[in-house]
C-alpha cells in the first residue's frame, strides 16, 4: 500500500477511480481500519467516511445507497436506512444518532487518495 | 332550566350533547341517570368488541366530558320512580332530583320468547358489554352455538359466536326468511347462501319449543320435533321497549309496549319526553340509532322553544354482516300495484339488487342491496331527495363505481341532501368544511361529525371531499420524493413512453438532484418490471436497494443469505445433497424457510459468487429472496399422491413459479397452489392463490400474511389452466402498472376504487380494453427472463463487485463474528 505524506496528514492511495461504481460506494482497507468511499458521478464529487454504521455498529455504509437531500450528499445504511450527511457526517434521520467521521479525498489522474490524518482509534467492534 | 335524563345509552347521550350545544344561550342544569356501570357507548358497533375494541374504545365520550360540561352523571343507579305531581325522580340509591323537563331514554331490552328453559346456563342475550363479557367467559366450554332470531341483531350475535371460536353455529329464524323486516325472499336466499359459504348454518321456518338440558343448555327442540344440539345459545328475537317506569307513573303506553309520543316527542305528560327505542311514535318503535338521534334533536329543540317535528323516519340501513354487505332503503317492498321493481341477481357472485320505482318511472321509492352495497348512499339520496330518475333507471344498479364518471353521482345531489343521517350532516355542510380548508377525511369528520357514528357514509364523504377539491381546481398528488414530482404510476408510463433503461436517464429526463434511497429503488423496480434487463447492468446496480445490489439478503453482522429457487417446493434427493455439501464447504447455517425452500445463512460477500457457481452447476437458479419480486409458489402434494387431490397442484405450481420467476413488482409477490379445498398450500393467504375444483381451478387474489393478514378473494372460478394463467398475467401486470411503491396486492386492492368488482371487471371482462396489452407486457418479461446469478457468475466485471475491500479483494471482513448454537453457527448478537 503506497502512502504519501503531506503537512496536514497522510494521503494514502485507496484505489483507481474506475474501481468505484458510478454513484456508489466501496470499502477501503487502511491498516486495521475500514473506510467507505463514495463517488457522485454527476457532480464529480468524492466523499469518504468511516465504514461502521454507529447505529448497530455494522460495517456496512459502503454498501449503502447514496443520494441527496436538498442538494446535500448523503448515504443510507443498508440495515435500517438511517441516513448520514457526507459533508459533515451527521445523522440526518435521527438527531440522537452519533455522527460519522469523514475524510478528505483527492483525485490525482485516475487515482483516489484519502487523507487519514484524523483517523481515530476505533473501539473494538 | 333543569333537565333530568333517564338512561345513558346512545340516544340519552345524544340528548346531552344537543342540550350542551344549546346551553350557551340559556343556563342549564343537567342530571343523568344510567343503569349500566359505564357511560354511554357505541352499541351499534358492539360486535367489534370481539375483534379487539375495548369497552373504552367504544365510549361515545369519556367520563371527563360529562364533568367538563357540568353534567351530574349517576352511573349504575337506575331511576326507580317518577313522581309527576312533584316533578321528581328517585333512584335506586335513593337520590331524588327535581326536574323542569324529564327525558326518558331507557331504550329497550331483548325480547325473550316465552319458551321453557330460557333460564338455563349458557343462554345469553346480546345487548350490553356485560352480556358480551358473560358470553366470552362461557364460550371456552362450548362447541356448538345457536342464535334464536335471524334479524339484524341475530346475525350480529352469530358473528360474535364465530369470533369467539365457535365455528359450528346455527342461526334459527321463525319466519321463512332472514331479516324479514329489511329484505325480501329472493334477497334472503342470496344472503343465506353467502353466509353459508362463510361457515354459518341457517335454519328458517323453525319455531323453538323448548331449551333442553338440565342445568346448562344442551340443545333446542323445535315445534316440528327436530332437535339441534347446542351448548351456547344467544336469544335475539326482537326488542321490547323499556316502558316500565312510564307505565308505573301512568303515562300512555301502546298495547304492545312503548311510550306513546307526539311529533315533538312529548309523552302524555307535556313535561316528559321519550326518545329512542322506548318511544312509540305513530305506532312504530324505531330499533335503529339514526331515528333515535333525530328524536333527540327534535325533543331538545322543543324544550328550547324551537319548533321541529318528528314525522317518522325511514328504516334505511346498510350493514356489513359477517363480511356481507346488506342494505335496505326507503320502502324495500311496497305493494306490487304501487310500484314497479327492477331486480338484478348474480348467483355466482352472490349479489342481489332490487329497486322499486314509481309506476311512471319518475322516482325511486326504495330497494334492497345484498352482496354489493356500493350504490347504497347514492340510491338512498336519490330516493330521499325525490330526484328524477334517468331514462334507464336500471343504470342505477348496473353502472359500477370506479368507471370514468365516478363521483358524478355526488355532484348531482342537492346541497340539502342528508349525507350523514346519524349526525344530520348535509352535503352543503361537508362541502363548506372542505372549502374552509378541512381537506382530509379526519378533518372533515372532526369538524362536521359526519361519519363519526355508524360510518356508513364515509365513502360518500370521501367522494365529496375529492369533488369539492376538484371544483376548487385542486388536485391531490402522490409524488415519489423530492427528486421526482410524479406518482409511481406516472413514472412508469413516462419511462415506458421514452423507452428509458437506466436510473440516470430517468433522472435526466424527469428528475432533479441525485436521487435518494426512496426514488432509486422505485425507478429500478419500474425498469425491471418494464424490460427485465439484468438489474446490475447499465449503471443500475447502485440504484438497487442494497439486497438487490448484492443479489442476497444482508444479515446481522454483514453476511448474506443464499436462497436457491425450489419451484413448488419439489426437490430431488441429489439436489438436497448438493445443498448440504455446499453449506458444509462454506460453513453456512441452513434452515427450511416458511416458503418451502432452504435458506443458507452467513455467507461472506466475497463467497457469494463461488457458492452460486456451484449451485448453478448443480441446476439451481436464483430464488430472488432479496427482491421485490416473485418469491415462492407453494404447493401441496396434490393428486399425484394425496387421496383427496383433484389435480396435480405440484406441476401447476412449478409451471407458475417458472413463468413468473424473477418478475419484479412494487412489492414482493407470493403464490400457492392447493390440490383441493382442504387448502394445505394456504393459497388464500397469497397475493394470488389457486385451488383445484372438480372443474378446474379457482383463482384467488390479493391475500397477505405478514403483519396485517388478509384473505385473498375469489377472482374467477373453475378456470382451465390456460385461462387461469392469462388472468394471472393480466392481474399481475395491472398491479405492477398501478400500485404505489411498496404496496402489497392486498393493500393495493383496499385502495382501489371500486374494489374487487372493479378488478374483476378489468381482469375477467376486460372492461378497460387493455387485457391484450397486459398479456403482451407479461410475455415480454417471461421471454426476457435470465437467472441473474448465472449472469454474475459468468461475468468477471460483475463478479468483482462482490468483495468486501476494493483494495484487498481476497480479504474477508475481519469484524464478522459468529457464535455456535445447536451444532450450527449463528450471527453474533449485535449491541
Ligand atoms: C427466511 C424467511 C423466514 C424463515 O426462515 O422461514 C423470511 C425471512 C425474511 N423475511 Fe419473511 N421470510 C420468510 C417467509 C415469510 C412469510 C411466509 C410465506 O411466505 O409463506 C411471510 C408472510 C406471508 C406474506 O408475505 O404474505 C413473510 C413476511 C415478511 C414480511 C411482511 C410482509 C407484509 O406484507 O406484511 C417482511 C417485510 C417486508 O417484506 O417488507 C418480511 C421480510 C423478511 C426478511 C427479508 C427481512 C429482511 O429484510 O432481512 C427476512 C430475510 C431473511 C434472510 O435474511 O434471508 N417477511 N415472510 C422466509 C423465507 C421464505 C422464502 O423461502 O422465501
Ligand atoms: C348488537 C347490536 C347491533 C346493532 N346494530 C345496529 C346498526 O347496525 N344500526 C343501527 O342503526 N342500530 C343498531 N342497533 C340498535 C341501536 O344500538 C339502538 O337503536 C340504540 O342503541 C338505541 O339507543 P337508546 O338510547 O334508545 O337505547 P340504549 O342504547 O339501549 O340505551 C338505553 C339505556 O338506558 C338504560 N336504562 C334503562 N332503564 C333505565 C332506568 N330506569 N334508569 C336508568 N337507566 C336506564 C339502559 O341500561 C341503557 O343503558 C344495534 C343494537 C345492538 C344491540
Ligand atoms: S418474522 Fe421478522 S425476524 Fe422472522 S424472519 Fe421475518 S422479518 Fe426476520
Ligand atoms: S446498522 Fe445502520 S442503520 Fe442500523
UniProtKB/TrEMBL annotation, chain A:
GO molecular-function terms, A-Z: 2 iron, 2 sulfur cluster binding; metal ion binding; nitrite reductase [NAD(P)H] activity
UniProt xrefs under InterPro entries: NasD-like, Rieske-like_NirD, Rieske_2Fe-2S, Rieske_2Fe-2S_sf
One Pfam entry name: Rieske_2
Domain Rieske: 12-114
SUPFAM superfamilies the UniProt entry points to: ISP domain (SSF50022)
Keyword Heme included in the entry's annotation: yes
Keywords (A to Z) from UniProt: 2Fe-2S, Heme, Iron, Iron-sulfur, Metal-binding, Nitrate assimilation, Oxidoreductase
Signal peptide location: none
Any Gene Ontology biological process: nitrate assimilation
Domain of life: Bacteria
PANTHER family referenced in this protein's UniProt entry, alphabetically: NITRITE REDUCTASE (NADH) LARGE SUBUNIT
Name by which UniProt lists this protein: Assimilatory nitrite reductase (NAD(P)H) small subunit
Record organism: Chitinophaga polysaccharea
From TrEMBL, chain B:
This protein's pathway: Nitrogen metabolism; nitrate reduction (assimilation)
Enzyme class (EC, first level): oxidoreductase
Enzyme Commission identifier(s): 1.7.1.15
Residue intervals of the Nitrite/Sulfite reductase ferredoxin-like domain: 555-617
Ranges that cross the membrane: none
FAD/NAD(P)-binding domain sequence ranges: 1-300
Alphabetically ordered keywords of this record: 2Fe-2S, 4Fe-4S, FAD, Flavoprotein, Heme, Iron, Iron-sulfur, Metal-binding, Nitrate assimilation, Oxidoreductase
Note on how the cofactor is bound: Binds 1 siroheme per subunit. Binds 1 [4Fe-4S] cluster per subunit.
Gene Ontology biological process: energy derivation by oxidation of organic compounds; nitrate assimilation
Residues holding siroheme: 680
The keyword Iron-sulfur is annotated on this UniProt entry: yes
Domain Nitrite/sulphite reductase 4Fe-4S, residue spans: 627-763
Cofactor(s) recorded in Swiss-Prot or TrEMBL: siroheme; [4Fe-4S] cluster; [2Fe-2S] cluster; FAD
Positions bound to [4Fe-4S] cluster: 636, 642, 676, 680
Entries under InterPro entries matching the protein: BFD-like_2Fe2S-bd_dom (IPR007419), BFD-like_2Fe2S-bd_dom_sf (IPR041854), FAD/NAD-bd_sf (IPR036188), FAD/NAD-binding_dom (IPR023753), FAD/NAD-linked_Rdtase_dimer_sf (IPR016156), NasD-like (IPR052034), NiRdtase/SiRdtase_haem-b_fer (IPR005117), Nit/Sulf_reduc_fer-like_dom_sf (IPR036136)
Domain BFD-like [2Fe-2S]-binding: 418-465
Record-annotated NADH-rubredoxin oxidoreductase C-terminal domain positions: 316-383
Family from the record: Belongs to the nitrite and sulfite reductase 4Fe-4S domain family.
Assembly: Homodimer which associates with NirD.
Protein's name in the database: Nitrite reductase large subunit
Organism: Chitinophaga eiseniae
Amino acid at each position: 500500500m503506497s502512502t504519501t505524506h503531506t503537512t496536514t496528514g497522510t494521503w494514502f492511495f485507496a484505489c483507481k477511480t474506475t474501481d468505484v461504481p458510478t454513484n456508489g460506494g466501496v470499502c477501503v482497507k487502511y491498516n486495521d481500519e475500514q473506510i467507505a468511499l463514495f463517488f457522485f458521478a454527476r457532480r464529480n464529487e468524492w466523499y469518504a467516511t468511516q465504514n461502521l454504521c454507529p447505529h448497530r455498529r455494522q460495517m456496512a455504509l459502503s454498501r449503502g445507497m447514496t443520494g441527496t437531500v436538498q442538494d446535500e450528499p448523503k448515504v443510507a445504511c443498508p440495515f435500517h436506512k438511517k441516513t448520514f450527511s457526507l459533508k459533515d457526517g451527521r445523522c440526518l434521520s435521527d438527531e440522537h444518532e452519533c455522527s460519522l467521521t469523514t475524510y478528505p479525498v483527492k483525485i490525482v489522474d485516475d487515482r483516489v487518495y484519502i487523507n487519514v490524518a484524523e483517523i481515530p482509534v476505533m473501539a473494538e467492534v | 332550566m333543569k333537565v333530568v335524563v333517564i338512561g345513558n345509552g346512545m340516544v340519552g347521550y345524544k340528548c346531552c350533547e344537543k342540550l350542551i350545544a344549546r346551553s350557551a344561550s340559556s343556563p342549564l342544569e343537567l342530571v343523568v341517570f344510567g343503569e349500566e356501570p359505564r357511560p354511554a357507548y357505541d352499541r351499534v358497533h358492539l360486535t367489534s368488541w370481539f375483534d379487539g375494541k375495548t369497552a373504552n374504545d367504544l365510549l361515545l365520550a369519556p367520563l371527563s366530558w360529562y364533568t367538563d360540561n357540568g353534567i351530574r352523571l349517576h352511573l349504575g343507579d337506575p331511576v326507580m320512580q317518577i313522581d309527576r305531581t312533584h316533578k321528581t325522580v328517585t333512584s335506586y340509591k335513593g337520590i331524588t332530583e327535581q326536574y323542569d323537563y324529564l327525558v326518558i331514554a331507557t331504550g329497550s331490552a331483548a325480547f325473550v320468547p316465552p319458551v321453557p328453559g330460557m333460564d338455563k346456563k349458557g343462554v345469553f342475550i346480546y345487548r350490553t358489554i356485560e352480556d358480551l363479557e358473560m358470553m366470552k367467559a362461557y364460550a371456552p366450554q362450548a362447541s356448538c352455538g345457536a342464535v334464536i332470531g335471524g334479524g339484524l341483531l341475530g346475525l350480529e350475535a352469530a358473528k360474535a359466536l364465530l369470533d369467539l371460536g365457535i365455528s359450528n353455529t346455527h342461526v334459527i329464524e321463525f319466519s321463512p326468511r332472514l331479516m324479514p323486516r329489511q329484505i325480501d325472499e329472493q334477497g334472503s336466499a342470496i344472503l343465506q347462501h353467502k353466509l353459508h359459504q362463510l361457515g354459518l348454518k341457517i335454519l328458517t321456518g323453525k319455531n323453538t319449543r323448548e331449551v333442553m338440558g338440565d342445568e346448562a343448555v344442551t340443545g333446542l327442540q323445535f315445534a316440528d320435533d327436530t332437535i339441534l344440539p347446542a351448548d351456547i345459545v344467544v336469544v335475539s328475537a326482537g326488542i321490547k321497549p323499556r316502558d316500565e317506569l312510564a307505565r308505573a307513573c301512568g303515562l300512555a303506553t301502546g298495547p304492545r309496549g312503548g311510550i306513546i309520543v307526539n311529533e315533538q316527542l312529548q309523552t302524555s305528560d307535556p313535561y316528559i319526553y321519550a326518545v329512542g327505542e322506548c318511544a312509540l311514535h305513530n305506532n312504530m318503535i324505531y330499533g335503529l340509532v339514526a331515528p333515535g338521534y333525530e328524536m333527540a334533536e327534535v325533543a331538545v329543540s322543543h324544550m328550547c322553544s324551537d319548533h321541529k317535528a318528528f314525522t317518522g323516519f325511514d328504516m334505511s340501513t346498510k350493514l356489513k354482516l359477517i363480511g356481507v354487505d346488506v342494505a335496505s332503503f326507503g320502502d324495500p317492498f311496497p305493494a306490487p300495484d304501487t310500484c314497479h321493481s327492477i331486480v338484478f341477481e348474480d348467483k355466482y357472485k352472490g349479489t342481489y339488487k332490487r329497486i322499486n320505482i314509481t309506476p311512471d318511472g319518475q322516482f325511486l321509492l326504495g330497494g334492497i342491496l345484498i352482496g354489493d352495497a356500493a350504490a347504497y348512499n347514492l340510491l338512498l339520496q336519490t330516493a330521499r331527495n325525490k330526484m328524477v330518475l334517468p331514462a334507464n333507471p336500471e343504470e342505477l344498479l348496473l353502472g359500477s363505481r370506479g368507471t370514468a364518471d365516478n363521483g358524478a353521482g355526488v355532484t348531482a345531489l342537492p346541497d340539502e341532501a342528508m349525507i350523514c343521517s346519524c349526525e344530520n350532516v348535509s352535503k352543503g355542510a361537508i362541502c363548506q368544511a372542505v372549502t374552509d380548508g378541512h381537506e382530509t377525511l379526519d378533518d372533515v369528520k372532526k369538524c362536521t361529525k359526519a361519519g363519526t357514528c355508524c360510518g356508513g357514509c364515509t365513502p360518500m364523504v370521501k367522494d365529496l371531499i375529492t369533488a369539492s377539491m376538484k371544483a376548487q381546481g385542486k388536485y391531490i398528488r402522490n409524488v415519489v420524493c423530492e427528486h421526482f414530482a410524479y406518482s409511481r404510476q406516472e413514472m412508469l408510463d413516462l419511462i415506458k413512453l421514452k423507452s428509458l433503461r437506466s436510473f440516470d436517464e430517468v433522472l435526466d429526463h424527469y428528475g432533479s438532484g441525485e436521487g435518494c434511497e426512496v426514488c432509486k429503488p422505485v425507478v429500478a423496480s419500474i425498469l425491471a418490471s418494464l424490460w427485465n434487463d439484468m438489474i446490475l447492468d447499465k449503471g443500475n446496480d447502485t440504484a438497487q436497494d442494497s439486497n438487490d445490489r448484492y443479489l442476497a439478503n444482508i444479515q446481522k453482522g454483514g453476511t448474506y443469505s443464499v436462497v436457491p429457487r425450489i419451484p413448488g417446493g419439489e426437490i430431488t434427493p441429489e439436489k438436497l445433497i448438493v445443498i448440504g455439501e455446499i453449506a458444509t464447504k462454506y460453513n453456512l447455517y441452513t434452515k427450511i424457510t416458511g416458503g418451502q425452500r432452504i435458506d443458507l445463512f452467513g455467507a461472506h460477500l466475497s463467497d457469494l459468487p463461488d457458492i452460486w457457481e456451484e449451485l448453478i452447476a448443480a441446476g439451481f437458479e436464483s430464488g430472488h429472496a432479496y427482491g421485490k419480486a416473485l418469491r415462492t409458489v407453494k404447493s401441496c402434494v396434490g393428486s399425484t399422491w394425496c387421496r383427496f387431490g383433484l389435480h396435480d397442484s405440484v406441476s401447476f405450481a412449478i409451471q407458475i413459479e417458472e413463468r413468473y420467476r424473477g418478475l419484479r413488482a412494487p412489492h414482493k409477490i407470493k403464490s400457492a397452489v392447493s390440490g383441493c379445498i382442504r387448502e394445505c398450500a394456504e393459497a388464500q393467504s397469497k397475493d394470488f392463490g389457486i385451488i383445484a375444483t372438480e372443474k378446474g381451478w379457482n383463482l384467488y387474489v390479493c391475500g397477505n400474511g405478514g403483519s396485517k393478514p388478509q384473505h385473498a378473494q375469489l377472482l374467477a372460478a373453475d378456470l382451465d389452466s390456460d385461462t387461469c394463467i392469462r388472468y394471472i398475467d393480466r392481474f399481475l401486470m395491472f398491479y405492477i402498472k398501478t400500485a404505489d411503491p411498496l404496496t402489497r396486492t392486498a393493500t393495493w386492492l383496499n385502495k382501489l376504487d371500486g374494489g374487487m368488482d372493479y378488478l374483476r371487471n378489468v381482469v375477467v371482462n376486460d372492461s378497460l380494453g387493455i387485457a391484450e396489452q397486459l398479456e403482451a407486457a407479461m410475455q415480454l418479461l417471461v421471454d426476457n427472463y435470465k437467472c441473474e446469478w448465472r449472469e454474475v457468475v459468468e461475468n468477471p466485471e460483475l463478479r468483482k463487485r462482490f468483495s468486501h475491500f476494493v483494495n484487498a479483494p481476497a480479504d474477508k471482513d475481519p469484524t464478522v463474528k459468529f457464535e455456535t448454537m445447536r451444532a450450527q453457527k449463528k450471527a453474533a448478537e449485535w449491541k
